[in-house]
Amino acid sequence: MLCLCSDGLTSKQLLEAAALYAPRGGHAALVVTADRAYRRQDKNVPRCTKELEALGLTAHCFDLDFSPAEQLLLFDAAMFIGGNPYELLDSLRRANARPVLERFARERLLIGWSAGALVFCPSLDLIDRYTPEMNSPKLDDLTGLHLTDTQVLPHYAAFLRRFDRFEEKAAEYERETGRPVLRLSDGDGVFLSGAGGPLLVRGEHHKEG
Residue 73 CB: number of other CB atoms within 10 A? Predict the structure, then answer.
């Protein structure tokens, strides 16, 4: 099961939905590679650890820049935190992680939020329309891991007020590519599997405003 969300499992609704797919008593990899500056010291690590513990999972920090992607298969679930999507995509490519993550999403619970969600989508082209300056690895090819055909746009309600022409650029992307954009605000997420359609979960959005 693949879960793409805006800022983690930050709503009651998302936690309840994720609990249906999380094996209680299992172990989860908390993948911190998207934050190359802080990694295990990322400010979101304690919160994400608590979210995984709420699912009955024991969390372990994992970094694809220092551990082989195949070691992810030792875990029952995985959560990829936010950070820089370009740097994360660069690390995933260098680690040849796509085959491992394809298998992981088929057999276990794979969660990505913010940058961690964007890299699992078809492309980073959408986010590149807002923050091209984040492309520190200077990637020319913005193709994502494409674990799903669904293209998400995290932090929608918050960024709608922060970026100029935020919604207009999303609509332009949809027209130019023919690919619908699923707008996710903090607390929202979508669960995707090979069987059946997507399960969209809307949170209470209590953190915004």
Answer: 16
CATH 3.40.50.880 matches 2-201 = yes
Residues 175 and 14: their CA atoms lie apart, in Å, by 30
Name the CA dihedral angle for 102, 104, 106, 109, rounded to a multiple of 10 degrees.
-130
Q: Which residues pair with 78 in a beta bridge?
A: 29, 110
Helix (H, G, I), strand (E, B) or coil at 86: helix
Its pTM stands at: 0.94
Taking only the tens place, the pLDDT of each residue in 163-186 is 999 999 999 999 999 999 999 999
pLDDT of residue 196: 66
- Closest of 143, 135, 111, 100 to residue 15, by C-alpha: 111
Domain edges within the chain: 2-201
